[in-house]
Amino acid sequence: MFIDISCAQKKKYNQNAFGDYFVSGRFPDMNRVVAVLSDGLGSGIKANILACMTSTMLLKFMENNSDIEKSCEIIMNSLPVCKVRGISYSTFSAIDCYDDGKATIVEEGNPDFIWIRNMEVLKPEYQIIESKTFKNRKMKVYSIKLEKNDRIVFCSDGATQVAMGTKGYPLGLERKGLIKIILKKLEQEPEISSNDLSDFLVKQIEMIAPNKELKDDTSIMSLYCRDPREALIFTGPPYHQEKDSYYATAFKEFKGKKAISGGTTANIISRELNIPVTAELSLNSGKLPGLSKMEGVDLVTEGILTLTKTLEYLESGKPEKDAAETLMKFMLDSDCINFLVGAQMNKAHYDPNLPVEIEIRKNIIKQIAKVLEEKYLKKVKVQFV
Amino acid sequence: MEKLVVKVCLGTTCFVMGGSNLQELSELVPQKYGDKVEVTGSPCLGLCSIKMEYAKAPYVKVGNEVVEDATVEKVIAAIEKHINNKN
What we know:
The complex is a heterodimer of chains A (about 375) and B (about 90).
Chain A: E1 2-10, E2 20-27, E3 32-40, H1 44-63, H2 68-78, E4 90-98, E5 102-108, E6 114-117, E7 120-122, E8 127-130, E9 138-145, E10 151-155, H3 157-160, H4 174-188, H5 194-208, E11 218-226, E12 230-235, H6 244-253, E13 257-261, H7 263-273, E14 277-279, E15 292-294, E16 299-301, H8 304-316, H9 323-332, E17 336-341, H10 361-374, E18 379-384
Parallel strand pairs in A: 12-13, 12-17, 13-16, 17-18
Antiparallel strand pairs in A: 1-11, 2-3, 3-4, 4-5, 5-9, 6-7, 6-10, 8-9, 10-11, 14-15
Helix pairs in contact in A: 1-2, 6-7, 8-9, 8-10
Chain B: E1 4-9, H1 12-16, H2 25-33, E2 37-42, H3 47-50, E3 60-62, E4 65-67, H4 72-86
Parallel strand pairs in B: 1-2
Antiparallel strand pairs in B: 1-3, 3-4
């Protein structure tokens, strides 16, 4: 089972810093995902610092399986004290979740999370842990078992309290109002990704706010348990030429989306599988060679230049219109990305007379794998052949 | 008359060695020759790795002829030569 996790946020109106903070980490070796959403006291930079400290510290504690009670005491003791209110405060929701569905959730101060299974909202049991040193600080700890197609939505109170005091929402949208919006969306789009659902919910909340001006930072962190979307990217000719046919067949038989990144690689697969490949010559391809077409393959691009640019886009999150943008989208639309990296090098690429420096394929793939895992929480497998 | 096929290599070496400028051919050739000449790309003509010692990328194939160090002018000249020979 794959845990698709994503967070969308909007700042309080007229603020230039987020007062809520989201961090997450995926540990593919342990089939584990950890994520924290924290809401700092107040808004703007002060809230941002409180929330950022809380969530990053908590994530580290959870990663190392530290005792949650102790971890929270340490965090509360370390946070700077607010000048206005004389307290150090930030609320949080955290989830530690394994691919088999076993999950621990800890909440302090944030609205109760929403757990949806077959369009029903479940009411899990929890244990309350009270802070020994801080009065009125209570944590709720849940041990739950997620199943396929379950969804979990966490939010900051900006979401549930939006439009509070207005005629339509005297008490704000409230948790039940949020549930209504979620269920309606799930009815229309039962397989919506966590990314799209979080985005949608935050936008809806903004629409509800009078004049679309949010009175508080608003965050939605959403989880979706589902079958992973697999993708295979074949790049570079295999080191042993006699194995071309073997890898071409493996590529053909892969169940999932397929891409080829590399002109020679495309030619090899075309030759071995006897499928013609055609390249489009166009002035509209930006600064990179345009896409090629091959039946049965979802995407065919040039190799090193496109991969280098893709890495740049993945890091910056600001793609331009070209083949690398398409390749980036191909990666981000998948959960498990398998790279089949041929180790044979084209000596011509290392000619010092080339006007640009061409990276070594292995290095780029390693860097792409790292950013996909760490920033985009993808599962990545790299096989050198 | 059989159509003359022009293939522009879009592989890495050719692209950085000036192949990117050859994309102009996709508009220029149809304007000039209409249906008589077809211009397409190729994921890689595979010439840079076997003809390394010459290092004459970008490569373009005009029919069976390989144009080395290709420029728009050189490719047009090669097309002219083919058409004139046939006539």
